[in-house]
Amino acid sequence: MTAAASWEHASDSFPVEIGALLDASLDEDLEGLRLLIAIPEWEVSLEGGVTASHTDVLALARNDRGLCVIGVEAKVDEDFGPLLKEKRAEVSSGQQDRLNYLHSLLGVTKLEDSVRYQLVHRTASALLAAREFHARTAVMMVQSFGKRASLRGDFDAFCRAMNAEDLPGGIRVVRSFRQPRLFLGWCIGDSQFLEVKLASAV
Q1: Confidence bin at 96 (pLDDT 50/70/90)
Q2: Is 161 domain-assigned?
Q3: For the chain, how many structural domains are there in total?
Q4: How is the chain classified by DSSP, letter by letter?
Q5: Is the pLDDT of residue 202 over 50?
Q6: Residue 49: pLDDT over 70
Q7: Domain assignment present for 174
Q8: Cα separation, 43 vs 73, whole angstroms
Q9: Share of the chain above pLDDT 70, in %
Q10: What is this structure's pTM?
């Protein structure tokens, strides 16, 4: 609900904090992006298992360089779900297939047990969506409205596991990805939307 209020308020643009982070990167594929459409609860099917990955907001944007897909994971104070250690402890054959698939998609041999599973499949979803739309770039963006320091720690740990490099402003790039390029971002959402209630559509 908080993320929905934030994006509704931004209307035909990005929430201010997201646009500012992208522009601050000084990367030609992220600067000056114009929002084309923002779709809530975008589902991406993943190999293995039966559950799709649900992205809170899938944003399509472009600049003169081309199309960019931004998968937004919005957080208030809830965590990023189980650790990979927990997923591996009671894994079914289908879940193991999915874990293998996600590792292959992200180009890693084995992510550490301390990495949060949700960050893995949300990043995979952004990549797959970018491929579907033939986009130049994919961004997995966390829009955080809460105050739990552990959330940022989990994000930073995932970035390290992916060998992501800092760009100006704080967004990170995973250099091993070329088509599409892959970026990981963290921004602080506007706290005014924590108390906003959207009008019912009924």
Answers
A1: confident
A2: yes
A3: 1
A4: -HHHHHHHHHTTS--HHHHHHHHHT--TTTTT-EEEEEEEEEEE--SSSSPPEEEEEEEEEEETTEEEEEEEEEESS-----BHHHHHHT--HHHHHHHHHHHHHHT-S---TTSBHHHHHHHHHHHHHHHHTT-SEEEEEEEE-S--HHHHHHHHHHHHHTTPEE-GGG-EEETT--SSEEEEEEEEPPGGGGS--PPP--
A5: no
A6: no
A7: yes
A8: 13
A9: 95
A10: 0.91
Tell whether 62 is covered by a domain: yes
The single residue listed with the structure tokens 């289908």 is 94
What are the structure tokens assigned to 181, written together? 């390029």
The confidence score (pLDDT) of residue 136 equals 97
| Residue, of 141 and 5, whose pLDDT is higher | 141
In a domain, 200, yes or no: no
User: What's the distance, CA 142 to chain centroid?
Assistant: 6
**Cis peptide, bond prior to residue 180, ω within 30 of zero:** yes
Query: What domain range includes position 130?
Result: 2-194
